[in-house]
Input
Amino acid sequence: MSALNLELSALAHHLRGRRDAILLSWRAAIKKDPALTTSDSLPRADLYDHIPSLLATFERELTSASPDPDRPGGTAQGSAAAHGLQRWQQGYDLREVTRELGKLNECVVSELEEYARSNPQVSHAATATARRVWAALCSTGIEESVGQYFQLQQQEAAGHVKDLESALAEIRALEQQRADLWRQAAHDLRGNLGVVANATVGLTHSGLHESSRDDFVRILMRNVTSLHHLLDDVTSLARLQAGREQRRIELIDISPIMQQLCEGVRPLAQQRHLFLRCDGPAGFAADGDAVKIRRIAQNLVLNAVKYTLQGGITVKWGDSGANDAKRWELCIIDTGPGLHTASGKPLADALEKADRSSPPEGLTPADTLPPSGGEAGEGIGLSIVKRLCEMLDATIEFKSEPDVGTSVRILFPRRYAAG
Output
């Protein structure tokens, strides 16, 4: 073994014994640097991570038969890349990564200088070789660590781009749904206004029989009422979409809200020869927004009354189940024609595919609610229900079977977090 190799091996042995001291010195330098703040929250093991492996590689390079500053070891590359990955996961920015490795370089160079001062017999060739080997390792370490960090940053950026593209696609789909909804509302308004205009013209005819006049008045009043409800729905939906609705959570009794709602809608159900039943415990207390819960139930009940031709509607409320003490449920069950979509899907999916059956033959428009029959206003009502449920952190699901009926189930939180 040459004299140079003996000197480098002695230096490697010295550095191996000083490794902990070098790490402590590096840690102290990091703490003094005001630009390096992320490391303050790291325990020693996480801070050191792959740095001891980098120092060990330096020691091995010095003891090799022919140390080559231009040949950094593969272990150094792997350790540095792993260091960059770990620092990324810990929330470091790129500037902190490079400054941290720069501080390590300063500590190792200081150690080499102190060794040279303490051992004047060591040749200049040995100290110069050691510096070149370390410079190559440190350069490789910074390159690999920063490269790994930059690669991860690119991957994250690509993920953000993908998320943005997905969000834009969802926004476009939502805007299309809104446009379809407003077109439907305009169609319904025009339909009702047409019936009102025709009935008004009919009432102006001279020699009109009294029975015919009564029919025209009945048609006129029914359509005016339908117009009023439709305009209320359009206004409500506009407020929701504009974000002008605010929830007001307080402790309420659900039972009287549902009872009063059913009492108000029951005459309409009886007029159509339908039953409307209320089934729920008295004094059922829960957190909630009384106005919005009533609007949700009212939209669903009126929608059920509108399309149910025989049988009736049942409104139920109470505990959601023994295994779900944090929520309570509201159910509206009808015996109508059903929604033509698969059961058990969320309402958001159903809104895109819902298709109520048309009234059977022989039932005139004046005998339906609203007079135009079909789907008038249903999309607006269900959209309002969906948005109100989102405001109240409620989930909604339904099961529907053609010619059997539809069951809508809404799960509300029993308690809301303060604030």
